[in-house]
């Protein structure tokens, strides 16, 4: 009994110690990545509208170097998921360098993409590396811990990051055995990145809305619409990547030609309104600036086009923008408060496209205030139910399908 207790204490001590280290290191890398990224985006906006003309040429230069020296890093998020599933794969540390620089290039030249892909890949890479120092604990547990730290350090939504890491690898199977170390790493990364000056988007909403039967029906309609939107994004991204790979089997030609097309369209559609992360659309919505009925669709299509070319980045922040601007449209149609529905779209389209439900509920609460939690729970539940198991993550597994 004493030996069993000692073994358990030693295991937990190792887990917590390494989790603290993961939170600190990943947060520092997130801050470096995030602050440089925001600076490059600001410079890019000053060079609009012509800078996206160089998106294709910049892409081919990066892709040449990436293919030559990146090795397994070129598998990107798929490699992180494979490691998280317990496959015997080593995530190369060079992945951190390549995905970081690649994403900086994407955004400097105006590509419509996100940034969470970098944070999750940084976290997964560092997590597995620290995990290799412990011979007694499964390395995939540290991949999950690192993913949470990466997400939390970038967005400073620690609870959402915890649930995202626990649920995204296998839908329907939560890894509660690493809940405490994941919590530790996530909160350390979030608080440290804040101390180090990384910006967080936050907008407090006080919902002036009673949950009457009619309001519940309207919220359900919103959730269904957001779910279909997220599913559409995930489906089009998968199909677009497959189509461009068949059309241009050579990744160098693919990123150049599709990059030139994407850059031209980004200039054509309102001189860069849909470039980069989409924070201009999000901040414009909550500042009550004019949002058109097609902002969400153009942002969706240009993000799909940019990512299908092979540019680095991610999908989540554009999904926030797509959901926010679609929420403005739905609010006007259904007669609901505009800012509340925009906030609901911010979280639930992300949840639909990633095929997660708890993470978007809490990201909504952490960004917009916990008074909104019941509204996020209702809308994200319907959004999740109507995404038809679509996901932006090709290696994501679904428990009840793999059990058959």
TrEMBL record:
InterPro entries: Cl-channel_core, ClC, ClC-type_chloride_channel
Compartments (UniProt record): Membrane
Keyword Transmembrane assigned: yes
A Pfam family matched in the record: Voltage_CLC
Primary location class: membrane
Residue intervals passing through the bilayer: 12-38, 50-70, 142-166, 216-237, 252-271, 291-311, 318-347, 367-387
One Gene Ontology cellular component: membrane
Molecular function GO labels: chloride transmembrane transporter activity
Sorted UniProt keywords: Membrane, Transmembrane, Transmembrane helix
Top-level taxonomic group: Bacteria
Topology class, membrane: Multi-pass membrane protein
Protein's UniProt name: Voltage-gated chloride channel family protein
């Amino acid at each position: 009994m004493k030996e069993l207790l000692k073994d358990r204490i030693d295991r937990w001590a190792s887990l917590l110690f390494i989790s603290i280290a993961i939170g600190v290191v990943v947060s520092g890398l997130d801050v470096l990545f995030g602050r440089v990224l925001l600076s490059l985006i600001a410079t890019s906006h000053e060079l609009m509208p012509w800078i996206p003309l160089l998106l294709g040429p910049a892409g081919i230069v990066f892709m040449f170097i990436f293919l030559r020296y990146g090795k397994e890093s070129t598998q990107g998020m798929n490699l992180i998921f494979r490691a998280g599933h317990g496959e015997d794969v080593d995530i190369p540390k060079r992945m951190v360098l390549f995905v970081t620089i690649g994403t900086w290039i994407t955004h400097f030249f105006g590509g419509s993409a996100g940034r969470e892909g970098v944070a999750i890949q940084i976290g997964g890479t560092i997590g597995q590396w620290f995990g290799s120092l412990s011979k007694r604990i499964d390395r995939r547990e540290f991949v999950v811990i690192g993913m949470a730290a990466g997400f939390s350090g970038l967005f400073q939504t620690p609870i959402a990051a915890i649930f995202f890491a626990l649920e995204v690898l296998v839908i329907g199977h939560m890894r509660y055995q690493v809940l405490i170390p994941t919590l530790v790493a996530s909160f350390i990364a979030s608080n440290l990145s804040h101390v180090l000056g990384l910006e967080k988007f936050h907008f407090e909403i006080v919902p002036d809305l009673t949950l009457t039967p009619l309001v519940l029906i309207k919220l359900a309609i919103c959730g269904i619409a957001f779910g279909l939107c997220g599913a559409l994004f995930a489906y089009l991204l998968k199909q677009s990547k497959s189509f461009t790979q068949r059309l241009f089997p050579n990744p160098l030609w693919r990123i150049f030609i599709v990059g030139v097309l994407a850059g031209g369209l980004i200039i054509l559609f309102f001189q860069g309104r849909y470039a980069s992360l989409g924070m201009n659309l999000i901040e414009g919505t909550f500042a009550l600036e004019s949002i058109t009925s097609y902002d969400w669709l153009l942002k969706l299509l240009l993000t799909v086009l940019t990512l299908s070319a092979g540019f680095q980045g991610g999908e989540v922040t554009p999904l926030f923008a797509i959901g926010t601007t679609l929420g403005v449209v739905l609010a006007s149609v259904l007669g609901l408060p505009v800012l509340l529905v925009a906030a609901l779209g911010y979280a639930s389209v992300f949840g639909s496209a990633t095929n997660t439900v708890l993470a978007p509920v809490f990201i909504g609460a952490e960004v917009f205030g916990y008074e909104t939690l019941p509204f996020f729970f209702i809308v994200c539940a319907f959004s999740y139910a109507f995404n038809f198991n679509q996901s932006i993550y090709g290696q994501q597994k679904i428990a009840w399908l793999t059990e058959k």
